[in-house]
Amino acid sequence: MSRPAPFRVQPALDDDNRFFWTSGQDGRLRFLRCRSCGYYLHPPLPRCPACGGRDVAPEAVSGRGEVFSFTVNHQPWDGDPDPYAIVLVALPEQDRLRLTSNLVNCPPGEARIGLPVRVVFEQHDQVWFPLFEPA
Amino acid sequence: MTGFERRSIISGIGQSAVGRRMGRSGLDLTIDAALEAIADAGLTTADVDGIATYPGAGGGAGAGFSGPGTPEVQDALRLEVGWHTGGIEGAAQLAAVVNAVMAVGAGLARHVLVYRTVTESTEQGSGGRQGIGIGIGAGGGGGVPRMGGAMQWSIPFRAYSAANWLAMNAHRHFHEYGTTPEQLAMIALNGRRNAGLNPKAVYRDPMTLEDYFASRMVTSPFRLYDCDAPVDGSTALVVSSAEHATAVDHPVARVEAVGTALRGRPSWDQFDDMTTMAARDAGAQLWTRTDLGPADVDVAELYDGFSFLAMAWLEALGFCGKGESGPFVEGGHRIALDGELPLNTHGGQLSAGRLHGFGFIHEACLQLRGEAGDRQVDRGGRGVEVAAVANGGGPVAGALLLTREG
User: Fold this and answer.
1) Is there a cis peptide before residue A43, judged by omega within 30 degrees of 0?
2) Quick check: ipTM above 0.85?
3) pTM attached to this predicted model
4) What's the CA gap between B381 and B280, in Å, rounded?
5) Tens of pLDDT along B173-193?
6) What are the backbone angles phi and psi of residue B254, rounded to the nearest 5°?
7) Cα B45 from chain centroid (whole Å)
8) Which three-class secondary structure state does DSSP give residue B139?
9) Which among A17, A74, A102 has CB closest to B158?
10) Cα–Cα distance for residue pair A129/A21, rounded to 1 Å
11) How does DSSP assign B61-80, residue by residue?
12) What are A's interface residues with B at a Cβ cutoff of 8 A?
């Protein structure tokens, strides 16, 4: 039996980040990408920081990634006593494009640098949290 | 080379009582520290014509973090100032000192009171350290605000604390350089040993490597002893125009150089080099502003809010090569009081208490002045002539180089 999803603080949605936090509705992970120069910009901005272009739009990525670093948290900051893995995932679509997230669907001790992962989404109300499981 | 820094000295230092759950207000502690620093500078409150602090009133990050703002302290001391500032954004806590040095260099003030006050022990109570920015406590749930801004990229993923974020930096350093938990432990052990010689340190009981590894894991690889101890306390100093040195009846600290640079992305998880973070930039800049070099430094008081940060600062300030802090601290000999680079001679924030930055500059001044008592570094009889001070972790970093005058 799967464990119930843990408590999560919700992001405050605005016009810049809404696409990101609702992207998982169709199971795809998206980042803003500049249509002029191809740069993926994260966190979201109204203009491309690489070329200054205004033509930025969400683009789906593969959803694959690799654990760049991790920590297994033991401190019950939110009252949950169970350890869980926080990961920093490197996306292959661009050098240094990274996402802090959680490693799920496996024991937290399986987290290691270099672990291949794929995105899975956990829905809370109208927000889809991009999490990662071993690929 | 004549940087603006040379026009300033630290003419006086002061510190309140430091302890856990003292139940005194931040303003009360600040007044104690301020009056001590002002008297130590050979001044009265009427002479003080500038005031600066980090982070200023309401500066985020949880209960007991900010201390009183400058208007409150200025009013409590009835100061009349030519310049005043407080704020959280900048080159870590030392930005307040750098700002004061610039104000004196610019001629806007002659004697600037600079302070950092925390009451995190009293405010956070027996629940222990909180995550940064929120106090959700047990059960989570109702009343927790939605997270916007930069924190939306960590808090919703249950990465609540800088402990979590910096643990990932540490693991990356382990991976890239082969750094080990036994090497990381040296920061905690060194601090605890020095704290045993510091009457104001909050944790003074001897710690062995076995004690370290027996302590509970907070967020891997950080154990309890890798995380600093919340306390209540205020630390203050007076930054004065350099000519005031002759009017003071003790040696003073001359500000030789500062480092405030941040050239990578100002982000906890998007920074280009997770093994150095902003310390890399502040450290490099500092050495461009002086003819002195790392080999000239007699003591290093380097931020250890989490043990790994002191290792990152050792590298960023060039005391060892990039990635080499593990072997550098191995066994603890080089960083001991009688070693080639005494580190965190007061015990660091890990054992002397989380005074949040200014404990390092206070200790550096004590060492330069020969007033560090049982933990005074000797350097073969010539005493401490050059001290390096660093604050900050992640995308926030500031560094100072101080020399003895008088």
Assistant:
1) yes
2) yes
3) 0.96
4) 33
5) 999 999 999 999 999 999 999
6) -90, 140
7) 26
8) coil
9) A102
10) 7
11) SSTT-S---HHHHHHHHT--
12) 6-14, 17, 42-43, 68-80, 84, 86, 88, 96, 98-102, 113, 129, 131
